[in-house]
């Protein structure tokens, strides 16, 4: 008894990886399975890129370095007239844009004659032979008549083409700017770069000259206006002086001011004096002074005569006092002294009254003086204010004359300077490094383009490989069989790459040079026996979805394997496209199943003993195979075969084409479904198996056929078959 190898555990027993984790082994498997397509596509793209790159016209680039000064020496400060002042970044950025302006580029086009160069003038280029094919209007006879191109449009397009070939690159944190010019000619590229720099400098100097001339014209016009205004102001000043008879207004104003000051001081003094005399006068007139108080009035006391009399009175009073100490009151000396004292006092009273009367008269005089002084001050104030008004008006006219004169003098001086230096211009830039014809082209970068093309080809081919892998809805691995078909995997058979083996694939089990295939068939045999251990006689049907999936070769090799365990019969139930008789080289016209079912032959004539098993071929192909397989004779034949053989293997037709297998499967103990790896869509196989299950067919499991010997399942494990050394390489 042969010892069967232990089959590998089904994929469900393995530890499934997390779906969120990228399986690098699966990615490698996809890339490896499409490696030749990826390599071929990448090589084709790279080759095409090489051909395109080497057919492209080389482009050369020349560079001129220009230094732009932010603030140049100003010989003539015309910028002040127009407000032109250079900033830092804004000024340099403005000059960078001026470098690319149409005016500068137009100078370059005219100087180098680029309008006659086909590289920049599309009108001069040769029309390719396929241009007419791309003109869809000509297909319908709608072509527009030829129109002579406008020179302005040609110049515009030429400038646009030149602008596309020029690049301005400022050097950071410096005043340098690099002018890159590209052309198919290295000499022309250098000329263009240098021409752009020179055109920019010339354009700047021309613009400055134009500003100078424009400023000169403007100042000349302005001077005429200022001259008229100055004459008008001077005439107004002279007319005003003549009208007001003004000769020396400053002296008159000074004299009037001094006179007003003197009158004001006199008025203040008179008012002070009037206040004192008025007070005394009021006291006297009101009678508020008591008798004897007249002599206490300050004005009386300060009078010289009163002061002398007071001194005499005091002297006599001392004398009377001294005499009274020595003499009696009736002494002649006393009487004489008292008489003198009384006389002095009477005289003092008389003089005091006279002084008081004088005060009253003085008060009246002071009042008259105060009124006259006040009137004189008021009159003089009016005169001074009038003089001030005239002075203000005069000064305003003088200021206007002086202002107009200053403006006129400034413009006259400026216009003289501008006229004298109008032909002297300073440039704001200079060429640091001139451009020279380059030796190597900058475009196309052949190595870079080819490398990128190869990389893109590789990425695209890998993407297509993964896309095809995602779109592939076929059964390719044992995991697909178990998950998508919900069937156990009985075994897998490798794909035969040797064409010499295809001639006898039906009995490859007996080929000692192919131990891997034989061990794979033994695995299938073991799985079938384990699935039907409780049945004494085993009758198995073998079918597939469509023809060509290897069901007949699988049935033949399975029968040969079962023949080592017991008496086995291989029965060809495919009465439409039989291949068993042809595979085993049974002579055509020999009796077979169709003859047995039509009672035209007996069992002895139909059974052929070949390679250790019995074989019943199809025989004569009948016109009604389905009726024969559903007949009572077929049922009785199978019962008879169960009794005579340990194993009966039925090679049945495909499920998708005909329904013969549905009739046969109800008599079987098991059904082996053969699936070719990577051929049929999953939904087609599921539909076929669904038909079998609806017919209550005893589907034992599936055999995955023609699998790549190096194929891996989703988890990266191989599919589980014996290699060329006979070692089982299933999942561990």
Description:
- The protein is α/β, with parallel strands linked by helices and 732 residues long.
- Helices cover 55% and strands 10% of the residues.
- It is built from 24 helices and twelve strands.
- The protein has an eight-stranded mixed β-sheet, with helices on both faces. Strands 2-3-1-4 form a four-stranded antiparallel β-sheet.
- α5 (102-112) crosses α9 and α10 runs antiparallel to α13 (332-421).
- The longest helix has 90 residues, at 332-421.
- It is elongated and about 220 Å long.
- 27% of the residues are buried.
- The model is unreliable at 1-17, 73-87, 288-292, 712-718 and 720-732 (pLDDT under 50).
List the helices and strands and how they pair.
Layout: H1 24-33, H2 35-55, E1 60-68, H3 79-82, H4 89-99, H5 102-112, H6 131-134, H7 136-139, H8 151-164, E2 166-170, E3 176-183, H9 186-244, H10 249-286, H11 298-301, H12 304-326, H13 332-421, E4 429-433, H14 446-471, H15 478-484, E5 489-494, H16 515-531, E6 538-544, H17 551-562, E7 568-572, H18 580-583, H19 593-597, H20 603-606, E8 608-610, E9 613-616, H21 625-629, H22 632-644, E10 647-651, H23 660-665, E11 670-676, H24 682-694, E12 699-707
Parallel strand pairs: 5-12, 6-10, 6-11, 7-9, 7-10, 11-12
Antiparallel strand pairs: 1-3, 1-4, 2-3, 8-9
Helix pairs in contact: 2-14, 5-8, 5-9, 9-13, 10-13, 12-13, 16-17
Q: Which keywords apply here?
A:
alpha/beta; 24 helices; 732 residues; disordered N terminus; four-stranded antiparallel β-sheet; single chain
């Amino acid at each position: 008894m042969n010892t069967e190898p232990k089959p590998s555990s089904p994929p469900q027993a393995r530890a499934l990886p997390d779906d969120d984790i990228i399986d690098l082994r699966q990615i490698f498997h996809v890339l490896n399975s499409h490696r030749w397509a990826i390599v071929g596509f990448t090589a084709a793209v790279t080759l095409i890129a090489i051909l395109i790159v080497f057919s492209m016209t080389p482009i050369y680039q020349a560079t001129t370095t220009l230094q732009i000064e932010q603030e140049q020496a100003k010989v003539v400060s015309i910028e002040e007239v127009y407000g032109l002042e250079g900033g830092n970044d804004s000024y340099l950025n403005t000059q960078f844009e001026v470098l690319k302006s149409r005016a500068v580029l137009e100078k370059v086009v005219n100087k180098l004659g680029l309008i006659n160069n086909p590289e920049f003038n599309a009108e001069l280029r040769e029309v390719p032979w396929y241009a007419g094919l791309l003109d869809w209007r000509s297909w319908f006879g709608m072509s527009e008549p030829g129109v002579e191109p406008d020179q302005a449009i040609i110049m515009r397009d030429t400038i646009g083409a030149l602008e596309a070939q020029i690049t301005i690159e400022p050097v950071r944190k410096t005043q340098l700017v690099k002018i890159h010019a590209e052309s198919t000619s290295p000499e022309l590229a250098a000329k263009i770069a240098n021409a752009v720099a020179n055109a920019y400098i010339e354009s700047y100097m021309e613009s400055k000259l134009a500003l100078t001339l424009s400023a000169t014209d403007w100042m000349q016009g302005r001077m005429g206006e200022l001259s008229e205004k100055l004459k008008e102001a001077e005439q107004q000043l002279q007319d005003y002086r003549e009208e007001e008879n003004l000769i020396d207004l400053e002296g008159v104003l000074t004299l009037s001011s001094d006179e007003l000051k003197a009158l004001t001081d006199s008025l203040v003094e008179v008012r002070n004096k009037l206040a004192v005399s008025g007070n005394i006068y009021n006291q006297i007139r009101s009678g508020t002074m008591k008798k004897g108080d007249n002599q206490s009035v300050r004005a009386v006391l300060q009078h010289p005569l009163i002061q002398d009399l007071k001194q005499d009175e005091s002297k006599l009073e001392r004398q009377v006092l001294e005499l009274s100490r020595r003499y009696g009151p009736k002494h002649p000396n006393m009487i004489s002294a008292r008489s003198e004292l009384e006389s002095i006092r009477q005289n003092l009273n008389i003089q005091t009254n006279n002084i008081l009367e004088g005060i009253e008269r003085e008060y009246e005089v002071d009042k008259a003086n105060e009124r006259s002084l006040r009137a004189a001050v008021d009159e003089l104030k009016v005169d001074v204010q009038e003089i001030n008004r005239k002075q203000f008006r005069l000064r305003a006219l003088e200021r206007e004359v002086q202002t107009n004169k200053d403006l006129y003098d400034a413009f006259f001086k400026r216009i003289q300077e501008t006229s004298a230096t109008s032909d002297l211009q300073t440039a704001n830039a200079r060429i640091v490094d001139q451009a020279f014809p380059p030796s190597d082209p900058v475009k196309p970068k052949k190595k870079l383009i080819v490398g990128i093309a190869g990389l893109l080809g590789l990425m695209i081919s890998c993407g297509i490989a993964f896309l095809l892998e995602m779109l592939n809805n076929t059964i390719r691995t044992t995991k697909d069989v178990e998950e998508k078909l919900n069937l156990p995997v009985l075994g897998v058979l490798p794909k035969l790459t040797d064409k010499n083996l295809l001639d006898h694939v039906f009995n490859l089990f007996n080929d000692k040079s192919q131990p891997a295939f034989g061990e794979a068939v033994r695995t299938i045999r073991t799985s079938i026996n384990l699935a039907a251990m409780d049945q004494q006689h085993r009758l198995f049907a073998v079918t597939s979805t469509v023809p060509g999936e290897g069901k007949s070769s699988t049935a033949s090799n399975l029968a040969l394997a079962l023949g080592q365990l017991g008496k086995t019969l291989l029965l060809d139930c495919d009465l439409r496209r039989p291949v068993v008789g042809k595979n085993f080289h049974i002579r055509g016209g020999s009796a077979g199943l169709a003859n047995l079912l039509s009672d035209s032959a007996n069992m002895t004539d139909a059974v052929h003993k070949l390679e250790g098993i019995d074989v019943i071929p199809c025989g004569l192909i009948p016109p009604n195979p389905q009726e024969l397989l559903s007949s009572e004779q077929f049922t009785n034949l199978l019962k008879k075969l169960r009794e005579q053989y340990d194993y009966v293997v039925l090679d049945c037709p495909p499920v998708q084409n005909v329904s013969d297998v549905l009739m046969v499967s109800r008599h079987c103990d098991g059904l082996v479904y053969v699936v070719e790896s990577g051929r049929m869509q999953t939904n087609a196989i599921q539909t076929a198996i669904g038909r079998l299950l609806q017919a209550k067919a005893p589907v034992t499991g599936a055999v995955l056929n023609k699998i790549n010997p190096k194929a891996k399942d989703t988890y990266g494990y191989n599919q589980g078959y014996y290699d060329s050394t006979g070692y089982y390489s299933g999942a561990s």
